[in-house]
Amino acid sequence: METRYDPKAVEQRWYDAWEQRGYFKARESLTGKTFTISMPPPNITGDLHMGHAMYTLQDVLIRWHRMLGDAALWVPGTDHAAIATQNVLEKQLAKKGTTKEAIGREAWDQLVNQWYETTGHTILGQMRRLGFSADWSRNRFTMDPAYVEAIRYVFVQLWKEGLIYRGPRIVNWCPRDQSAISDLEVQYVEEDGHLYFLDYPVEGGGTIPVATARPETMVGDTGVAVHPDDWRYKDLIGKYVVLPIVHRRVPIVADEAVDQEFGTGAVKVTPGHDATDYDIGERHHLPVLSILTLDGRMNLPEVPQLHGLKVPAARERIVEMLRSEGALQKIEPYRHSVGHCDRCGAVIEPIVSAQWWVRMKPLAAPAIAVAESDDLRFHPERWREQYLRWMRNIRDWNISRQLWLGHRIPVWTCANGHAVAYLKDPQQCEQCGNRHLTQDPDVLDTWFSSSLWPFVTLGWPADTKDLRRLYPTQVLDTARDILYLWVARMVFMSLHFLHVVPFSDVLIHGTVLAPDGRRMSKSLGTGVDPLDMIERYGADATRAWTAYFGTSGQDIRFSEEKIKSYQLFANKLWNATRLLVTKLPERPAVMPIDEATLEPADTWILGRLSAVTRVVTESFQRFEFGPAIDGLYEFTWHEFADDYLELIKPRLQAGDASTATALAVAVHVLETTLRLIHPIMPFVTEELWQRLPHEGETIMYAAWPLPDETIEDRGLMEEMAHLLEVVRAVRNLRQSSDQKSRRQPAEVTSARRLLTEPVGRAYLATLAQLELNGKLPEGMPQSVLVVGQTTVKLGLPADGAAETERHKGELDKKRREIESIEAKLNNPDFTAKAPATVVERERARLAQARQAATRLRALLGETGELG
Description:
Strand order of the largest sheet: 6-5-14-16
Strand content: 15-25%
Low-confidence stretches: none
Number of strands: 29
Number of helices: 29
Largest sheet: 4 strands, antiparallel
Mean pLDDT: 92
Structural class: alpha/beta
Distance between the termini: 60 Å
């Protein structure tokens, strides 16, 4: 074996082997259980980013369940990314001096298909670099023919049930793309603007002051609203104002949506161009006026000074007009959030538009019930309440987009005005036979097609063997920002059409932020390419970092140093394996362990392995990978490699009966540890596992380890834990002083059983590099360490004055520790309210601190009471 682990020499070789041998396919279950995850479909035209690296969490679960013996399947696929792809293709056409309208819809569809063919596999190849073990032979695309048929089926069924309708409502409108967009596609940016204070004349005398950040919309006002409890305006409720410029008469209404602290406490109501105002308008039956064209220009022929102007220019002009009428009171600086289109950056303009909608109340009720009954669980659990809050206040869902790319709305209208949804393209109207049919030009919201993802990818609406065997799936892993837009919609669609939840557990992973806490963005220069991390440190290290932080439930600041630490961990595994492989025969068989020949160190490491196995398994069961990785890292690096392997080196060299036992135990522990690490770091574990005695063709299907309580000698593990604490104290002392000679004479006294026995003292001598030959010579300068019930006197080669000063410092620390614990124990609130185990632990700490202080005082020649 090479002296260092090189991921580049291993990762691609093993990935190709796994894929070629069909290891990613779902095998027959050994447990009678299946475990399925539907991969959240990335944009087909996208590149891998740190959000996609979070898919590692899904791969960890899939690999774990394979090893448990379940029939495990990870279904991959891609989304057609309508707005993003259309923007790219329109820019290409613009460079050629043409447009989509100029080339026509048929040529456009051909262009789209060509684009998907040439760019659609990039991200899937990049995902392979991270070791994702999806069954790529099942790859689905939201525009493939079978998927399109399923979408049509759902639309038609909902339409027949009266759950889909067309009508005008307020939407997020992008004037650049000239389409409604979802809430997720609106990016809010804090911007410096102004707050304009206007005076609206009240009929009968006086004025009412209103404040707005968008004065250009006042020409579309149909009301003024105040809070019903606001004493300033109580007498004005029910009266009318006459708007400046347009001189429209509008009422003053009372509505609880008004924030009394904002501006003047009175707000202009423009139902046609603000979502909150739209709701106020509905409650008070206010008219809806549209004052903007679809490309974001003022639509006011009756006000020529404003008509046709873009919004920024209209704002400047209307401020001048308001000032000239004496209606502008003042202007103040104002910082506020402004919605922008996530794809093109244009400022979003809320408008009322005729769109296709899904009636949500009937669909939401079952989706609420499954979360309330815990048939649908969230990790972390706090997201359950977020989900329920949204579902209980849900509004009808706008499912139409004014784009050319996507799934066409399958509704045709005949010359006689009959609008009907069809499964297949119709030749004539089913109601009157008219053959002059026009299909609706809009396409479906991408989230409509994605809401069917977990069951359509398994063959629905056909009654397939896959659907019967593998559905419902078990886990969905996703980001919090699409909890409502995607997760909730998959839930109610599955409940409506298949009458089951699509998954039982929803894992919400954190968002990866830039190191300075800002969001990652290519345009801001804060993005990190996972492929760069793989190139520098390997896929395993990148995966380990992602898995460690991903299930914490918190946003994560990117840390390249942490990824590097996992590369070093992989190298630690490599070197531990290299040490043992040199002791093995050329074709090693699995070596049995003779329990009758076990030494304390052997029993200890086997017990610790069992305990770590339990920690890892329970962490996986709770969807908390961080504790599992911490446990594996500490056990492998320190207890196994630094301590146990160091202890058995003399036995491995001895060539006697103890050699076989030590080697068998070490190989067993390492092989088992590799299996525990495999779901997180698959490449290095497969490479090393293949070099050790093992059963089976691949670690991917090796049995998941089980804890063995019979080998967990609690007393011995406590004794070894104390011994290793002493070792660490000696090592730390030698690192912080000049006592770095290879072996140092020492004298040990202890009340701990293992350290009174020759084998325990030998362990201490080996790990701490001490010479334990009885008492130190009379008058030899010494340094003293006190660890619990153990005292170690280290012989010094020179003047011990420095050690005397150190003893004094340690005694001062012990005195402060004693004072702190005594104060706590003398506090009746603590002793009365703290759990009994906590109080006892503090009393034990106090006793140990007093013993240590007594020993230090004796070394310093102090007499009298401790003070």
